[in-house]
Specification:
- This protein has about 130 residues and is mainly α.
- It has one domain.
- The chain has helices spanning about 10-35, 40-65, 70-95, 100-130.
- Helix 1 packs antiparallel against helix 4 (about 100-130) and helix 2 (about 40-65) packs parallel to helix 4.
- The radius of gyration is 16 Å and the shape is elongated.
Length: about 130
C-alpha cells in the first residue's frame, strides 16, 4: 500500500531527530563509561550529528519528490556526510582542545551508529512511500 509522500521538512526532521537520538545515546554512554573524556564524547557526537544533518538533505529531498530514486540519493547523502564530518572533525583534532584519541573514537562510533540508523530509516521510508513490500 502506497502512502502519501511526505514533505521535505517532515523527512528531514525525521532524519535529524533520529540522528540526534543515536548520537545522544552514544555520547551518554561515553560520558558514563569515561567521564574524563566526556567533553570529547559530546564534541565528537555533536560533530557527527551536524554532519548527519547535512547528509540528510539529499535523501529527504528525494523521498519527498521521488521515493523510488531515493537509493541513489542515499549514496549521495553518505558522501555529503563523510565530507562534512571531515570538515568538522579535522579542525577539532588539530586544535588540541580535546584528547585526540578519545575524540576520534567517539566520532567513529557515533558516525557508524547514525549511519546505520539513517540507512535503516531510508530503506523503510522507500518501501513505505513507493509501495514496495520487499
Amino acid at each position: 500500500m502506497t502512502q502519501e509522500q511526505p514533505s521535505f521538512f517532515r523527512c528531514y526532521v525525521r532524519f535529524a531527530g533520529a540522528g540526534l537520538v543515536a548520537a545522544g545515546v552514544v555520547a551518554a554512554i561515553g560520558c558514563i563509561l569515561d567521564p574524563a573524556n566526556a567533553r570529547a564524547a559530546v564534541a565528537g557526537c555533536g560533530a557527527t550529528w551536524a554532519a548527519g544533518c547535512a547528509g540528510a538533505v539529499p535523501t529527504a529531498s528525494a523521498l519527498s519528490t521521488n521515493p523510488r530514486g531515493a537509493g541513489l540519493a542515499a549514496l549521495t547523502s553518505t558522501g555529503v556526510r563523510f565530507g562534512a564530518v571531515l570538515l568538522l572533525v579535522v579542525p577539532l583534532v588539530l586544535s588540541g582542545w580535546f584528547p585526540r584519541t578519545a575524540l576520534v573514537v567517539f566520532v567513529a562510533v557515533s558516525y557508524l551508529t547514525t549511519l546505520i540508523v539513517d540507512s535503516v530509516m531510508t530503506v523503510r521510508m522507500i518501501q513505505r512511500f513507493s509501495g514496495s513490500n520487499r
